[in-house]
TrEMBL record:
Species this protein is from: Paramecium pentaurelia
Residue span, Alcohol dehydrogenase-like C-terminal domain: 45-171
Lineage: Eukaryota, Sar, Alveolata, Ciliophora, Intramacronucleata
UniProt keyword annotation of Zinc present: yes
Cofactor: Zn(2+)
Superkingdom of origin: Eukaryota
InterPro entries, sorted: ADH-like_C (IPR013149), CAD-like (IPR047109)
GO molecular function, one term: metal ion binding
Name of protein: Alcohol dehydrogenase-like C-terminal domain-containing protein
Keyword Glycoprotein: no
């Protein structure tokens, strides 16, 4: 696919939006209404973008995380509140409060994972974007979902129109990932940080500069 790059778009930061960005933007835009409450579970590569998009769409955002030492940073992204993503007793106090829940995590603890689903308000939407290992099937809290008429959705990427819209929205609202940048020669360092889950939050490699230097730029 080929997309039109909007005027004012930050090319140096924008590439992860074509994967992580559209993965969270598409379902949030599809199911939101202004003034909805939104829970974002897990503030990593997907979650820190979901917080920004949800806030810019006009939703009130609560970030569920284990990184409360990053409270000010997460609030600057657009979250109004922070809460624990793994404390079952804390999660119980938030049950049924959120019109949209977008979960960027897969938690093996069944009670914690069901508590994530129970954050969804009656007739609300639960969106799962965090994937378990390939041979693991996660379990839905069928009783809570059925009795409360919960819509369950997933997202990997979006279609062409959604992706173009996401690029425009990002440029207009200054929504970009937090990235670590590397020269092409340092690609192995970037890959190593990604493999070890040490990157914050995405690694971007400058291929263009290397291509220009080697006569491959057209």
């Amino acid at each position: 696919m080929v997309f039109r790059i909007p005027e004012g778009f930050n090319d140096a930061l924008g590439s992860p939006l074509l994967c992580a960005g559209i993965t969270v933007y598409a379902p949030l835009k599809r199911y939101y209404k202004p003034n909805f409450s939104c829970a974002v579970i897990g503030i990593g590569g997907l979650g820190h973008l979901a917080v920004q998009y949800a806030a810019k769409l006009g939703m009130t955002v609560t970030a569920f995380t284990t990184s409360k030492n990053r409270e000010q940073e997460i609030k600057r992204l657009g979250a109004s509140n922070l809460s624990s993503s793994i404390n079952v007793e804390s999660l119980k106090t938030e049950q049924g409060k959120y019109d949209i829940v977008i979960n960027t995590l897969y938690i093996e603890d069944e009670e914690v994972f069901k508590s994530h689903q129970r954050l969804t308000a009656p007739t609300g939407t639960y969106i799962q974007v965090g994937a378990p290992p390939s041979k693991v099937n996660f379990k839905l809290d069928h009783a809570y979902i059925i009795l409360n008429q919960i819509r369950v959705a997933g997202s990997l990427i979006g279609n062409y129109d959604e992706t173009q819209e996401m690029l425009e929205f990002s440029a207009q609202n200054n929504v970009y990932p937090i990235v670590e940048t590397f020269e092409f020669e340092d690609f192995p360092k970037a890959f190593d940080r990604m493999e070890k889950a040490q990157a914050k939050f995405r690694c971007v490699v400058n291929v263009g500069k290397w291509a220009q230097a080697n006569g491959l730029w057209k």
